[in-house]
UniProtKB/TrEMBL annotation:
The chain crosses the membrane at residues 6-24. This is DUF2500 domain-containing protein. Residues 49-71 are annotated as: Disordered. The keyword Membrane applies. It comes from Pseudenterobacter timonensis.
Length: 119
């Protein structure tokens, strides 16, 4: 009988440790992005993706359909060559982009700051 509560304590401890690790990781990434210099590169928009965020369990979706919360991402390839970069964007920023469009990308670390298209 005493093994069952011990099992649950271990499971709860593992979940707590994993959640704490993720929280610290997110804080560290935010601090690194804040400290990073503003970089600008001439790029081409190579891809756009939007997908619904599923924050409900399957049973809840049967009762009430999922909300309209979306995640927006765009990929950029430097004109001079190099690795493609993918950033998460806000809806307004996402809808202003067109695949194949050239311009100047501004970013800090892994955070998208802006895109200025060529005239």
């Amino acid at each position: 009988m005493s093994k069952m509560p011990l099992f649950f304590v271990v499971v709860v401890a593992i979940i707590f440790i994993a959640a704490s690790f993720r929280f610290v990781q997110q804080r560290r990434e935010k601090a690194d992005n804040d400290a990073a210099p503003l970089m600008q590169k001439r790029v081409v928009v190579t891809n756009k993706r939007e997908k619904p965020l599923n924050d409900r369990r399957s049973r809840q979706q049967q009762v009430t359909p999922a909300g309209t919360t979306m995640r927006y991402e765009a990929s950029f390839k430097p004109e001079t060559g190099g690795l493609e970069m993918t950033f998460r964007l806000e809806a307004q920023q996402y809808h202003q982009l067109t695949v194949g469009e050239k311009g100047t990308l501004s970013y800090k670390g892994t955070r998208f700051e802006g895109f200025e298209p060529e005239q």
